[in-house]
Amino acid sequence: GGRHVLCRRALPPQDQAAAKEAAAVPAEAARGGGGAGATQEAASIPQVPMIHQAPALALTPGTMALIEETVPVVGSSEAARIFYGQLFESNPALRTLFGDEEAQVRKLVGMLSWVAKSVADSPSLSEGLQRLGERHIQYHASLAHFHDIKGAFLQMVTIVDQQAIHEAEPEDGEEDGGDDLEGGGAESFPATPPPVDRHQRLLDVHQAWEAMLYVFIGEMGPRMLMKEQLGGFHLALANDLAAPAGGTCVALAGAQGSALLAMAANLTRAPQPGTPERALVNDAHALLHRIRTALEELAGLDMSAYCRVMAAIRQPQLDQPDARKRAISYAIEQAARVPLQVAEWSIYGLRVARRLLPVAGRSGVGDAGAGVQLLVAAAKAAIQNVHINSSSKLATYYHGRWPREVNSRAAELAAELAVLDAELESIVSQRNLRDG
């Protein structure tokens, strides 16, 4: 959609040099290093991984105002102690990740105070939460911990908000009775405010903070993703938080497929240096590195996009139902465009594989075939996710053009994928017969 600002989530510093090196490869190929095929591949390289920056990270003004209003209660020292008590009760093993509890209480209070000041400034909030995710890698935090943290935090919100509502209610006999002790009549007394609907208030506050937690997970999680241990990642997949979920796995499958193809290129010792075939293998290896890096980044962006959808959906309607629907619609578009990019990069990887496989070394053909199958599966599943997200009832709430656009491109990619899949299956079969 043209109403968004496009942004690329910055790579971690340790990956920036590698990405910069890989980015130079298409230019070298275009100068003739890899022949006409390399020039064609360079010209068709997909755009850098992007996410459509939805306003306020999918939070409505009403939700942001409710967050700011309740931070003095939710962000108090008493609330922080309740949170850690709930957290350690639900998962005692997490206690080993924390030091002095009172120090942790002060950190949580300070962090939530910062949230109150930053919630209306989405770029600053996003940047700060990404840095927080990077710091939590050093603390050995895992994506699987978000499930327990979310549960304990929302329990705390309910407890302290109930207490705050009870304390704010007048005691029996404190209400103005309207008696005119001085003879001034009823006009001498201010109007009694309408009673608070306690149930609705508790629900609104709970939903606002649940949405805020999804913003936290969506901004912190991608920074933690590529440093996650495999077992911890699988634990995170298995719980009901669904962040990360299928879209992240699809992108990572494509990244693994690209890595296997790069291994096949590394195992190709011949042809001799200086030949066109050697240049083709070298160019393919460098391009596959770039493809893998892009798909790893998209794995994180998919997690972020999903969390923005959840934040938009979970937040309360308050008196702004249209604002909430617009936020959901913006977020759904992101959740469709990210897998479209996954499909673009996966199919680009298959184009590179089509050129590499005929000359790849014998010892790497089997692994290259497995890489091809992973890239095919990633492209198919990504296209499926595009269709699922673009068909949502709220997808076209703010404008109706983007679903047609992404579905049209997805159809083009699906047609190309069918051709590439058949061609590569034939190439792998021929190599197995020839080399077997």
What is this structure, in a nutshell?
The chain is mainly alpha-helical. It has helices spanning 13-23, 25-33, 35-43, 61-74, 77-90, 101-118, 122-138, 145-168, 198-225, 230-238, 246-266, 276-314, 321-356, 365-390, 402-435; strands at 5-7, 51-53. It starts with a strand and ends with a helix.
Structure description:
There is one protein chain. With 436 residues, the chain is mostly helical. Helix content is 71%, strand content 1%. The protein has helices at 13-23, 25-33, 35-43, 61-74, 77-90, 101-118, 122-138, 145-168, 198-225, 230-238, 246-266, 276-314, 321-356, 365-390, 402-435; strands spanning 5-7, 51-53. Helix 9 (198-225) runs antiparallel to helix 12 (276-314). It is elongated. The two termini are 51 Å apart.
Structural class: mainly alpha
Q: Biggest sheet: strands, sense, closure?
A: 2 strands, antiparallel
Give the helices and strands as they follow along the chain: EHHHEHHHHHHHHHHHH
**Biggest sheet: strand arrangement:** 1-2
| Amino-to-carboxy terminus distance | 51 Å
Tell me the strand percentage band. Answer: under 5%
Query: What is the share of helical residues?
Result: over 70%
Instruction: Summarize model confidence as the mean pLDDT.
Output: 84
Q: Tell how many strands the DSSP assignment holds.
A: 2
Instruction: Note the quaternary state here.
Output: single chain
Shape: elongated
Low-confidence stretches: 1-36, 173-186
Rounded to an integer in angstroms, the radius of gyration calculated over CA atoms is: 27 Å
